[in-house]
Amino acid sequence: MALSFPPRQLYYGGQVQPASSGKTFQTLNPATATPLADIQIASTSDIDAAIGAAEKAFPSWSQTPPIARARILQKAANLLRERNDEIARVETLDSGKAYTETSTVDVVTGADVLEYYANFIGGGGLNGETTQLREDAWVYTKKAPLGVCAGIGAWNYPIQIALWKSAACLAAGNTMVYKPSEFTPLHGLTLAEVYTEAGLPAGVFNVINGAGDVGAHLTSHPTIAKVSFTGQVATGMKVAGSASGNMKYVTMELGGKSPLIVCPDADLESAVDGAMMANFYSTGQVCTNGTRVFVPRSMKAVFEKRLLEKIPFVRAGPLFDEQTNFGPLSSAVHHEKVISYIRNGIEKDRATLLCGGPEKPNVPQDLQAGYWVKPTIFTDCTDSMSIVKEEIFGPVMSVLYYDTVEEAVQRANTTELGLAAGVFTKDLNQAHRVIDQLQAGITWINTWGESPAEMAVGGWKKSGLGVENGRRGIEAWLQNKSTLVDMSGAVATVFAKL
């Protein structure tokens, strides 16, 4: 079978480089389970070479004036927007997300973050502070880049996450070696070429391919100053432990089991739409998804009725059909995981299956081999069920009923995770009170999921360390230097003749 794309090699030192391992893997189209391209796997010497290229480029790039760095990043953002449809088509084939999503969200929001940080540093955002201590002494601070950094991407938002990591990293004056997920690797080389076309010097952004062993060698390398990782909690904890144990900076964006609380006075349409978006967008493969939907017991009948009325609007089908808004899961192994949770919800948890289930949805014959799943809703759920406690990372909604808002908040916080949370209510005073009590780093009121470049996002508890995006996001890629200047002409000393 002829593959859709030529083999993907590595990229470092400003050019495409063949991998020396002699090993490859294939990336698949999740909609059809057919191969798209052969991906060359980086050997340890290849990884070292990529890190060496980044290390060589760091002194010059870190000393490049912020306004000059800004111009390059702005040009890269423009190139991404110009090539939006082309890149989005590849994202759709590689990730299995509908083109209606990738063409309007994935590339666009990544470019937004790149432009945000370009404008930020171009407008003096990296300037330090000056404080006069007394008439003849003052303190000034400077923000310095960290050095060579490692970015480990995720498979659910491939190019967006690559841009979330590289934009702040490069704007701050660091260099990066980036490893895409082995499940969605096609964007890596494309982004590297866009950066080079925009004028990014050789070695500033580099790409290697491979699985966990490649990532482990990259993140443990002594030259790496920081590791930015997006992925599963268990893997992230191992990566963070290894990195911080070697005094590396870390940013961890991990998983969640986020609560969405519908208050008794909430607008029914808005609450149901919010719950649908919080569970079925991107086929439920979003770390911030609100998979635990807390609903007043008094609203049980009307809430479930409206959910069932809206489920037909979740449309699986050919990924480039403008009517399709629901794609397959990303891989065979993930499909097996999600289906096992659905079966567990039915057979062991004994939750009420409102709709969906483990059977495949109705899709055309040429898509039957793909990793498709039905949007699934369980009701009458309890906090002890595995489908309620554990991250499924698929289109599986658990509806839980409560008697008081205070009870809902307490139950919402009974988890080791704290990535996102939200509340739907017409009473904004109540909304702020509830949000203030929810133990999560990303919260929404009367909406769900939007994450603009200006908004710093990061998890509490085991959902992460640090934040990405917003003004605070770039601080994670910088280190502070404080200097005290004394102009008195004399040094105060206790070591003087009595």
From TrEMBL:
Uppermost EC category: oxidoreductase
EC number in record: 1.2.1.3
Pfam families to which the protein is assigned, alphabetical: Aldedh
SUPFAM superfamilies assigned: ALDH-like
GO molecular function: aldehyde dehydrogenase (NAD+) activity; metal ion binding
Keywords assigned: Metal-binding, NAD, Oxidoreductase
Keyword Nucleus: no
PANTHER family reported for this sequence: ALDEHYDE DEHYDROGENASE-RELATED
Family that this chain belongs to: Belongs to the aldehyde dehydrogenase family.
Name by which UniProt lists this protein: aldehyde dehydrogenase (NAD(+))
The organism's taxonomic lineage, starting at the top: Eukaryota, Fungi, Dikarya, Ascomycota, Pezizomycotina
